[in-house]
Design goal:
This protein has 4 helices and 4 strands, in the order H-E-H-E-E-H-E-H. The chain is an alpha+beta fold. The strands form 2 sheets. The chain has a two-stranded antiparallel sheet. The radius of gyration is 17 Å and the shape is globular.
């Protein structure tokens, strides 16, 4: 049993040496908002945010133009609507 005064160290995770990925994960952008929220308010607050998509980085306001819903009652509802437009899958790295 570990002593309570000892700090537990998390195992080190090595990051790859590849290029960074442009844009923010959708979940990070969604976490900055409070739910329920109208689509227009999402655009006002985070529309200029660039999110990562399988097709490359896209501005959130551009993605939301293709979303039919005008109100998102939950974070999951918002994320699902965005993923319907952008799809799911691997995000390409910058070259």
């Amino acid at each position: 049993m570990a002593d309570e005064n000892e700090e537990e160290e998390a195992p080190a995770v090595e990051l790859g040496e590849g290029e960074s990925v442009e844009g923010a994960p959708l979940a990070r952008v969604a976490s900055r908002l409070s739910w329920g929220m109208e689509k227009s308010e999402v655009v006002r607050k985070e529309g200029e945010s660039v999110i990562r998509t399988p097709e490359g980085p896209r501005e959130l306001s551009d993605v939301l133009e293709s979303v039919d819903e005008s109100y998102f009652s939950t974070r999951n509802e918002f994320e699902d609507a965005v993923r319907e437009v952008v799809g799911t899958g691997a995000v390409p790295t910058s070259e």
